């Protein structure tokens, strides 16, 4: 079977596949873990049992630290860290990045520090060690650079039972945090109820508390991180592929941060409310009597397979069924769609009444769009297009290219140029992949059974980035050989390959694109541009990462489309629209391991040659410790490729380039219950009479919208929209949406998992 790429999906796919818990009551309740076990045993009907946050913390921190195992894990991660493209830039970032975005991080130095502490037995428990390793990677704010140790992510996820929103009273005043349930109550319930903003959290100024907590997230931009703390409709619409109800309430990266036993909110009206924080229990606890037995069963080797899946439900209380039905529900706060991909991964909408000349393309993900030939033809008669990429953690790189090429079929066909670290492992793999490919034709075929051997070689080797024939150089020419692609070029004391680009005319494109050819190439050349650039505007909440940033580079740099950023910290001024990792390709660690092993075992011509290759750096990828010690149902990645903008003499990876949006719009309460309020504010600011920009502006951009007669269809749609809005109630806002991804294509190379 096809060896590579699909590996990335395995861990996430298993999220959907839970098995019922087999629980037995535990007698010994004297240790915290025994108490967890006893509590779980009584929750037989819950899909995901919960325990008080403090109890979970006491249990996980009672797991003893094992020095020799810790040192083995630290040795195990090192070969994979080498693949991270930007360690020298993280250590020494541009001044503007350090000032406005994030401080420097020394990955290799940090790893040494952890090793020294482990050597000195300075960790009180296994969790303290695991969490320090987790935090080293998290502190890079590179959403592609992730390793979640078992002690951090296998057993518990923490949460606060109170999702918040950050909203401006009138769209002009700086935003304040509110309890989301209060905003729902005001919107749909008691009209005389006016919620009070949160003034303090656990005794600390609320804004300060929330900005600090935001820093625990995976994004780099601080305003995007701030938005990610809160409940947001676009994020919720993604169900388990999104970061749920916000990090404050334990979604996304919030799930790995112990929030303390309670959360006290003090409101501006003087009232205080204390909430009990909790942890969801992700594994069966039968047989676990204490931290030691938890260690023996879960942290020593390959993990038991019967992990309880985290099965996000569409209700605020866990549903009793461990195997949820395979249907997906529409997203809360989204209107009736014109077109909606069944997992909410993409949707088309029209607005009503005065806005009926506007089409909206909601693209919260680039995962599995292969079915999504966007029906732009249908949008005939619509004059303007709002593209909402809020919550978009990426997906398949070439799906981002294709959406751009559907909009601009004649547009320039490359975003930034790519490069990766040039070192022994990448050189050797490139030499072997290139040599093998030179002996094979470059042919695409859909049916593997025609010739299994050839199919696998074509899919795994010939179409790979390690075959120099796959990409073009920066002049659009083919590389003559592997050394021409490999370089290396020296920068900041590290080595990188020469710059290269995707060859979108390549016959093997479907194997890199999730099954499609790109519009504008091959036999897909006869397309007309559906909208003028000035009739398109893109809006984002800053949570635009990976493939979404490649799409955005194309839209902004190539097509000149304007970008609007939403929300952000309670501070004046412009914010960035693109706040997630701008690396142009992630590599799962198991893919790296497979590349190395495959090169040794399958691409050598004799056992002697294999044995010789096994003595090089490529022989350092046999150990399974990182896979044994990663948290169940998590994805581990490095950022493999950097994007370098055309003409950037300094060759700064885009990750470190600060890029203000063209306009910033603040969230209002209405925007947290009705997504069309966002789209209307965007349309007004771009083409209407009224700018909602609190910073930046789109002045002189496009023409003013003119009132026009609605067609019969538009009147019907408008009535449907009014009806939808009238029928909304607080019950339409479950705290999580279950989107079943079984059957979806999770074969992705440009994604940041939440
Ligand atoms: C600690 O880890 C080592 C493996 O490095 C293992 O052999 C040993 O049994 C572990 N110790 C305990 C007490 O579990
Ligand atoms: C509506 O809210 C006001 C103010 O919070 C409260 O006094 C009143 O009892 C509420 N009415 C209902 C029907 O809940
Ligand atoms: C103060 O505001 C909070 C949050 O909106 C609300 O729950 C509480 O009932 C209010 N207290 C009073 C006394 O109105
Ligand atoms: C109960 O747990 C404690 C603390 O972990 C342990 O020392 C004791 O041996 C356990 N007793 C039984 C009967 O399992
Ligand atoms: C959750 O979604 C399922 C499937 O669409 C539906 O049957 C169920 O009623 C929903 N539950 C809630 C509480 O909304
Ligand atoms: C399959 O492809 C390989 C590699 O090109 C070739 O050597 C072999 O003869 C092919 N097998 C068949 C049955 O065509
Ligand atoms: C970079 O490559 C040059 C030439 O191959 C080599 O001499 C040097 O040691 C490399 N530097 C690093 C940091 O790997
Ligand atoms: C791109 O791919 C096509 C088909 O695989 C190939 O013919 C062409 O030489 C490649 N390079 C360029 C620069 O188009
Ligand atoms: C383009 O070519 C591919 C592969 O040859 C074929 O499957 C597809 O149907 C063609 N598409 C069009 C629009 O002709
Ligand atoms: C290309 O598109 C034009 C306009 O849509 C159409 O008239 C023409 O027949 C198309 N040509 C081909 C070769 O498909
Ligand atoms: C690699 O080689 C082994 C045996 O030599 C074979 O079983 C396996 O299928 C090969 N893998 C691929 C992806 O071709
Ligand atoms: C390579 O070396 C490792 C030990 O470092 C060994 O486990 C593995 O079997 C060797 N593989 C080959 C193909 O020689």
UniProtKB/TrEMBL annotation:
InterPro entries for the chain: ClpP/crotonase-like_dom_sf, PDZ_CPAF-rel, S41A_metabolite_peptidase, Tail-specific_protease
Molecular function terms, GO-annotated: serine-type peptidase activity
Region (Disordered): 297-333
Domain annotation CPAF-like PDZ: ranges: 158-285
N-terminal signal peptide: 1-18
Domain of life: Eukaryota
GO biological process: proteolysis
Domain Tail specific protease: 357-562
Keywords: Signal
Biased composition (Low complexity): 304-331
PANTHER family: PEPTIDASE S41 FAMILY PROTEIN, RHODANESE DOMAIN-CONTAINING PROTEIN
Protein name (record): Peptidase S41 family protein-like protein
């Amino acid at each position: 079977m096809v060896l590579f790429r699909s590996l990335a999906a395995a861990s996430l796919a298993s999220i959907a596949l839970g098995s019922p818990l087999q629980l037995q009551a535990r007698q010994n309740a004297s240790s915290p873990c025994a108490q967890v076990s006893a509590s779980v045993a009584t929750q037989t009907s819950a899909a995901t049992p919960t325990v008080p946050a403090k109890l979970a913390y006491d249990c996980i921190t009672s797991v003893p630290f094992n020095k020799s195992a810790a040192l083995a894990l630290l040795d195990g991660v090192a070969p994979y860290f080498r693949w991270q493209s930007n360690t020298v830039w993280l250590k020494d970032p541009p001044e503007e990045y350090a000032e406005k975005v994030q401080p420097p991080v020394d990955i290799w130095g940090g790893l040494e520090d952890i090793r020294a502490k482990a050597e000195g037995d300075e960790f009180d428990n296994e969790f303290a060690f695991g969490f320090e390793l987790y935090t080293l990677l998290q502190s890079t704010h590179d959403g592609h650079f992730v390793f979640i140790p078992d002690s951090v992510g296998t057993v518990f996820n923490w949460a606060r039972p109170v999702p918040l929103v950050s909203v401006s009273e009138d769209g002009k005043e700086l935003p304040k945090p509110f309890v989301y349930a209060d905003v729902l109550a005001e919107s749909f319930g008691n009209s005389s109820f006016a919620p009070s903003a949160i003034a303090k959290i656990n005794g600390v100024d609320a804004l300060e508390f929330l900005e600090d907590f935001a820093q625990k997230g995976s994004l780099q931009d601080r305003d995007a991180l701030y938005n990610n703390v809160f409940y947001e409709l676009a994020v919720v619409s993604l169900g388990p592929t999104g970061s749920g109800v916000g990090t404050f309430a334990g979604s996304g990266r919030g799930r790995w941060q112990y929030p303390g036993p309670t959360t006290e909110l003090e409101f501006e009206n003087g009232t205080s409310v204390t909430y009990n924080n909790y942890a969801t229990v992700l594994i069966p606890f039968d047989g676990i009597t204490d931290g030691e037995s938890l260690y023996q069963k879960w942290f020593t080797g390959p993990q038991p397979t019967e992990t309880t899946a985290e099965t996000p439900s569409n209700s605020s209380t866990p549903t009793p069924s461990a195997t949820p039905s395979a249907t997906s529900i529409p997203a809360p706060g989204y209107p009736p769609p014109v077109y909606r991909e069944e997992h909410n991964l993409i949707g088309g909408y029209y607005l009503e009444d005065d806005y009926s000349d506007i089409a909206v393309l909601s693209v919260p993900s680039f995962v599995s769009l292969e079915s999504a030939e966007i029906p732009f033809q249908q949008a005939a008669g619509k004059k303007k297009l709002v593209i909402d990429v809020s919550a978009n953690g990426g997906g398949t790189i070439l799906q981002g290219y294709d959406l751009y090429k559907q909009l601009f079929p004649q547009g320039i066909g490359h975003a930034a140029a790519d490069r990766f670290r040039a070192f022994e492992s990448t050189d050797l793999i490139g030499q072997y992949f290139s040599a093998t490919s030179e002996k094979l034709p470059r042919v695409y075929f859909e049916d593997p059974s025609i010739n299994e051997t050839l199919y696998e070689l074509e899919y795994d080797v010939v179409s790979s980035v390690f075959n120099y024939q796959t990409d073009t150089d920066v002049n659009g020419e083919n590389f003559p050989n592997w050394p021409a692609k490999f370089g290396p070029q020296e920068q900041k004391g590290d080595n990188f390959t020469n710059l290269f680009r995707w060859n979108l005319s390549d016959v093997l494109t479907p194997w890199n694109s999730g099954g499609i050819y790109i519009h504008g190439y091959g036999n897909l050349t006869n397309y007309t541009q559906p909208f003028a650039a000035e009739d398109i505007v893109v809006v984002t909440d800053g949570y635009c990462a990976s493939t979404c940033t490649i799409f955005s580079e194309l839209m902004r740099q190539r097509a000149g489309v304007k970008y609007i950023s939403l929300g952000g910290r309670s501070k004046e001024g412009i914010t960035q629209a693109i706040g997630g990792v701008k690396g142009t390709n992630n590599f799962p660690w198991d893919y790296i391991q497979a590349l190395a092993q495959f090169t040794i075992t399958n691409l050598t011509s004799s056992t002697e040659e294999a044995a010789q290759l096994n003595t090089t750096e490529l022989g350092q990828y046999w150990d399974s410790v990182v896979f044994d010690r990663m948290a169940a149902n998590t994805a581990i990645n490095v950022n493999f490729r950097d994007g370098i903008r055309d003409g950037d003499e300094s060759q700064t990876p885009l990750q470190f380039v600060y890029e203000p949006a063209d306009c910033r719009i603040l969230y209002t309460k209405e925007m947290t219950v009705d997504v069309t309020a966002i789209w209307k504010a965007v349309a007004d600011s771009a083409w209407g009479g009224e700018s909602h920009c609190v910073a930046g502006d789109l002045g002189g951009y496009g023409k003013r919208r003119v009132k026009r007669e609605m067609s019969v269809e538009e009147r019907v749609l408008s009535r449907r929209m009014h009806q939808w809005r009238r029928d909304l109630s607080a019950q339409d806002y479950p705290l999580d949406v279950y989107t079943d991804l079984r059957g979806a294509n999770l074969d992705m190379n440009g994604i940041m998992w939440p």
